[in-house]
Amino acid sequence: MPFALYDYLSASGINEVLVWARELQTPERAKLNAKLDMLATHGPNLRPHTLTGTDASGIQKLRVHGSVQLRPLLCEGPANVNIEFTLLAGAKEVGSKLKPPKILEVAESRKAEVTADPKVRRVAHVRP
Amino acid sequence: MSDLKTILATEFRDKEYAHAYMHTHLLERLAAQIYQTRTARKMSQTELAEASGIPQAKLSKLECAEVQSFTLATLLKLARALDVALNVSFEPFSKLARSVETATPKSLAVLSRAEDLHGAASLNQLLGAVEARVTATTLSSSAEVTTVNQLPTGADV
A4, B100, B108, B126 — which has fewest CB within 10 A? Predict the structure, then answer.
């Protein structure tokens, strides 16, 4: 696929995004995969606002609509900004607020970890 | 089959999964097609909103795929404003799954009726001209053959 997707890995080697995604119900998991497939295949080329900014610098959210409003948090790069995305954390949006409440800070922290050591702190995206 | 097609072929054995996946894909594709066709016309979102009678805020949500569904009435308004034909049809999953990978900005932007019909007319003229040339060449060749056949034996050709 033209754009590479990666998942954040914790210091102990756990794929936190995969753990989050595997807990989703079937329709939510399907919708998430449909969005991620479009992102990996086309990036932002088919339409603008494929990704939406957040209050945290460099952290974007993918808006997955459904009975549950999924908002996986990700960043461009960080190794190669124009050709890859790294999924940092799973979240949901309820009443315009992200849940869990401190998830943006978590995503920022994880982005810093990946940036410092991209070979160790991320892995090619694993489809849930 | 590409990796993605192989993956989807397996995942789509689950009916609930397949319908949820294609629902999201359909909304994404429609959103991208509205955006690509509008920008190909050099229309602003406000201009399309005025031409279609759809509030700009709603149009923005449609283009960002921030909706759960499109009504046929909304699609018909957009088709009229963009001057394109609307085709709503049921399809096998495999066909739509292919479109996940094959969509491009160019393929999504639809020609307006005027451009489309002008192109068709030009194509017809071109085909007509080619056909006329082929016919003329064939007749000319036949005439040459006839001429050669009518030459006296031993004549230089």
Answer: B126
